[in-house]
Design a protein that fits this description.
Blueprint (H helix, E strand, L loop, with lengths): L9 E3 L5 E5 L2 H4 L12 H6 L17 H15 L3 E5 L2 H4 L8 H16 L3 E7 L5 H4 L8 H17 L5 E6 L1 H10 L10 H25 L5 E8 L9 H22 L6 H6 L6 H4 L4 H5 L6 E5 L5 E3 L15 E3 L15 H14 L5 E6 L16 H19 L4 E7 L18 E3 L6 E3 L1 H12 L1 E3 L7
Parallel strand pairs: 2-3, 2-11, 3-4, 4-5, 5-6, 6-7, 7-10, 10-11
Antiparallel strand pairs: 1-14, 8-9, 12-13
C-alpha cells in the first residue's frame, strides 16, 4: 500500500467481507480425559495401531484446552476478526445424552474470550467427534442418534446463542459418512457402503432438525448454515467413459448433500447408481427431506482441491465410494501440496460461480480453504512458508474473481489457525498459519499468517509477486 493509502497492484474485497480462521475441537483441544469429557469415536479409532500415521492421537493435540488464551492472543496479534471453532460433543455430553456442566462452561469461556478480543465467533456443533457411547449403539446408522444430536444442539445453543451469531449444525457430512462408514479411513473405521448411505441421510437429517430446533429458540442475531466440502470433477478428454465417471463422482461428492439441503432432494442419477445397495430409500421416512431442507441463511463452502475421476480398469484401485465401484482417481498434476492435493485456484472460482447459479438466493462463505506444506523453522524462529503464501494469494484472488463474476461471497475462513492433528495423517501435515512445536507446544506465526494479517488490514490481496512480511 502506498503512503496515500492506495492499493496499487492489489485486489480489493467488498466492505464488510468476513475474514477469519478456523479450527476443530478434536484437532486442537487435547485434554481428552479432563473435566468429565467422554471418549469420542476419534479417541477409539486413533488408539488402534495402524489407523493413524505413526499412531498419533488427539490426546494432546495443540493443548488448546489449556492454552486457548495464548491462541486467542494470536488472533489479536494478527488482527483476525472472525473465528470458527467446533464444540466437542463428548465434552458437553460424555455419553451423548447427559450434560457435563464443566464442558459447557469451557465453551462459554471461549466465547467470552473471543468477544473480549473483539473476535466474532462462528460455532460448528459437529465436526466429526461423535461420543463413543452413541457409536456403541450404531452411531450415525442409528436414527436415534439424530434425536440425540437435536437435544445436544438445543443445550449448546441455549447457552451460547446470545453471543454467537453464526451457527453450523454439521461440518462435511460427506466425510463423516463416506470416510467413516464407507471406506473406513476415518473414525469409526467401518467399510460398508450401506452403512455409509444410511449415515449420510441421518447426518443430513440431524443438520435439518438441528437447524429447525435452533431457529425455534433464536432471535434476530442468529444465522444458520452448513459446511459442505466440494471437489470439482476435472475431465480433460471428451471420452464418454471419462464423462460418466465424472458424473458419478460429482453426484456423490458435490451434489447429493447440496441438493438435499437446498430442497432438490437426492439426485435421481445418484439414486440410480446406488439402487442396488437398497440402503438409502429405506432410511428415508415421510417428512425427512423437508426437514433436511430447513431454510439456510448462507452456505459454508469448504474447498481444497479438485479431483480427476476416470474409468476403473483391471488392477486399478477404486475410489471406495458407494455407487462408484467402476471409478478411479487419476494422480493430481503438479503443483501439489504435501497432501498430494492439486493446487487449482481457478477451480475455486468456477465452483463458487456454479454454486451461485445453483443456489441464487443463498450467500456463500468460504468456511475452509488452505494447504499443507513441509515447513522449516529458520533462523530466529521464522517460518518462510512461501508456498502457502502463494496458495492463499492465488485462492483469495480466485474468490475475488468469483465475486466479479456475480457470486455473492460474503467471507473467507483460512484453514487453519494452528498446525494440528490432521485426522488419519496425524501431525505430519501442517495446515496452520501458526506453527506448533508438538513437543514443546511453542507457537510461531508463519509468514503466511502475516500475509493473512495484511489482507485483513487492507481488505485486499496482492497481485503478482508475493511481498514477504
Amino acid at each position: 500500500m502506498d503512503p496515500q493509502g492506495n492499493h496499487s497492484n492489489r485486489l480489493n474485497f467488498p466492505a464488510g467481507f468476513l475474514w477469519g480462521t478456523a479450527t476443530a475441537a478434536y484437532q486442537v483441544e487435547g485434554a481428552t480425559q479432563e473435566d468429565g469429557r467422554g471418549p469420542s469415536i476419534w479417541d477409539t479409532f486413533s488408539a488402534i495401531p495402524g489407523n493413524v500415521v505413526e499412531n498419533h492421537t488427539g490426546e494432546q493435540a495443540c493443548d488448546h484446552f489449556h492454552r486457548w488464551r495464548e491462541d486467542f492472543g494470536l488472533l489479536t496479534r494478527l488482527g483476525i476478526p472472525n473465528y470458527r471453532f467446533s464444540i466437542s460433543w463428548p465434552r458437553v455430553q460424555p455419553d451423548g445424552k447427559t450434560l457435563e456442566p464443566r464442558g459447557l462452561d469451557f465453551y462459554d469461556r471461549l466465547v467470552e474470550g473471543l468477544l473480549e478480543r473483539d473476535v466474532t465467533p462462528m460455532v460448528t456443533l459437529y465436526h466429526w467427534d461423535l461420543p463413543q457411547a452413541l457409536q456403541d449403539d450404531g452411531g450415525w446408522t442409528n436414527r436415534d442418534t439424530v434425536a440425540r444430536f437435536v437435544d445436544y444442539a438445543e443445550v449448546v445453543f441455549s447457552r451460547l446463542s446470545d453471543r454467537v451469531p453464526y451457527w453450523m449444525a454439521v461440518n462435511e457430512p460427506f466425510c463423516s459418512a463416506f470416510f467413516g462408514y464407507g471406506n473406513g479411513v476415518h473414525a469409526p473405521g467401518i467399510s460398508d457402503h450401506r452403512q455409509a448411505l444410511r449415515s449420510m441421510h441421518h447426518l443430513l437429517l440431524a443438520h435439518g432438525l438441528g437447524v429447525e430446533r435452533m431457529r425455534e429458540l433464536a432471535d434476530d442475531g442468529n444465522s444458520f448454515g452448513i459446511a459442505l466440502n466440494f471437489a470439482p470433477a476435472v475431465v480433460e478428454t471428451d471420452d464418454p467413459a471419462h464423462e460418466e465417471a465424472a458424473r458419478k463422482f460429482d453426484a456423490v461428492q458435490n451434489r447429493i448433500c447440496l441438493d438435499a439441503v437446498t430442497g432438490r432432494g437426492y439426485p435421481e442419477d445418484y439414486l440410480g447408481d446406488v439402487a442396488h445397495l437398497d440402503a438409502l430409500a429405506p432410511a428415508v421416512q415421510d417428512g425427512d427431506m423437508a426437514s433436511i431442507a430447513a431454510p439456510l441463511d448462507w452456505l459454508g463452502v469448504n474447498y481444497y482441491a479438485p479431483c480427476r475421476p476416470a474409468p476403473r480398469g483391471a488392477g486399478d484401485e477404486g475410489c471406495g465410494l458407494p455407487g462408484l465401484d467402476d471409478v478411479r482417481m487419476l494422480p493430481a498434476p503438479p503443483p501439489v501440496t504435501s497432501m498430494g492435493w492439486e493446487q487449482a485456484p481457478g477451480q475455486l472460482t468456477e465452483l463458487l460461480v456454479w454454486l451461485a447459479k445453483r443456489c441464487p438466493t443463498l450467500p456463500l462463505i468460504v468456511a475452509e480453504n488452505g494447504a499443507a506444506f513441509a515447513d522449516t523453522v529458520g533462523d530466529g524462529g521464522r517460518i518462510h512458508d512461501t508456498e502457502r503464501m502463494r496458495y492463499y494469494t492465488e485462492h483469495l484472488a480466485a474468490v475475488r474473481a468469483a465475486i466479479d463474476a456475480g457470486a455473492d461471497v460474503r467471507g473467507y475462513y483460512a484453514w487453519s489457525l494452528l498446525d494440528n492433528f490432521e485426522w488419519g495423517m496425524g501431525y505430519g501435515q501442517r495446515f496452520g498459519v501458526v506453527h506448533v512445536d508438538f513437543d514443546t507446544q511453542e507457537r510461531r506465526i508463519k509468514d503466511s499468517g502475516w500475509l493473512l494479517a495484511n489482507a485483513i488490514e487492507t481488505n485486499s490481496v496482492p497481485q503478482g509477486e508475493i511481498p514477504l512480511p
